[in-house]
Description:
Blueprint: E1 9-18, E2 24-34, E3 39-43, H1 50-57, E4 65-70, E5 73-74, E6 82-86, H2 97-101, H3 111-114, H4 119-132, H5 148-160, E7 166-170, H6 178-195, E8 198-202, H7 206-212, E9 215-219, E10 226-231, H8 246-263
Parallel strand pairs: 3-8, 3-9, 6-7, 7-8
Antiparallel strand pairs: 1-2, 1-4, 4-5, 9-10
The chain binds adenosine-5'-diphosphate and magnesium ion.
Amino acid sequence: MSAMARPFVEIQDVAMRYGGVEGTLALRNATLNVAKGEFIAVVGPSGCGKSTLMRLVTGLWPATEGNVIVAGHEVDRPLAIAGMAFQNPTLLPWRTILDNVMLPLEVVEPHRRKLRAERAQYVDKARRLLSIVGLGGFEKKYPYQLSGGMQQRASLCRALIHDPQLLMLDEPFGALDVFTREDLWLELQTVCQTLKPTVILVTHDLKEAVFLADRVLIMSARPGRIIAERTVPFGRPRTLDDTYTPAFQELVHELREHIAAARRGEEIPDAA
Ligand SMILES: Nc1ncnc2c1ncn2[C@@H]1O[C@H](COP(=O)(O)OP(=O)(O)O)[C@@H](O)[C@H]1O
Ligand SMILES: [Mg+2]
């Protein structure tokens, strides 16, 4: 990316208040930029407005104040270029895994228009994604026939099927055991190195943030805003062994101190 390139996601001085003037102020003076192809992680105390931020970026909700700009355009409706996955996989129980993964194609243009004529290619693509995340052979199963981790993998495929330029992940692995979670980190890393989407990941797992992200943003307690950021200096592909190195653990520890301070309503002054 050239130094001149405009950020892919620009959030400028955003405030979000729920429920009218007397309502909950979830975000205030939230400002952040994400470069095209960058992977950022957002961490912060629970209830600080992380999910709210995700809703504003994807256009599910309008900001009360400030600007949300994606790919150079003010966001004023749900974004078709975004793929989303959340903490609880929301697969439709009456559709097979394959048909769940293909769902966005029935909604998002230009795929919607092309789906009937090019169905075979789209099915191939869904199968390819499923095999990347270890679900080859499960295409015809129904969600209830899969474990929670497998359903989460399928919802990741669904988030990726329409080649989203922007991947929004809100604690997507939060409900999983640690081994499954680590498997999915590796798979997500592979997918991202192949497809190179811009990614915003919300997580409360600091190790996950450091493992996956190019940059970690730390939010204050509510009303949330970005109070600090750390660039993750480790090369790719990263391995689980990397998570045990002193440099990795030091960075996790430093983030932990920022969050602890944020929970107390303090900020650690930036050393840099
Ligand atoms: N739909 C809503 N209506 C009213 N208040 C909400 C709504 N969604 C979230 N909030 C409030 O906004 C604040 C931030 O919530 P949220 O963005 O979900 O935080 P996080 O994801 O960081 O835990 C919380 O106080 C929450 O109760
Ligand atoms: Mg949340």
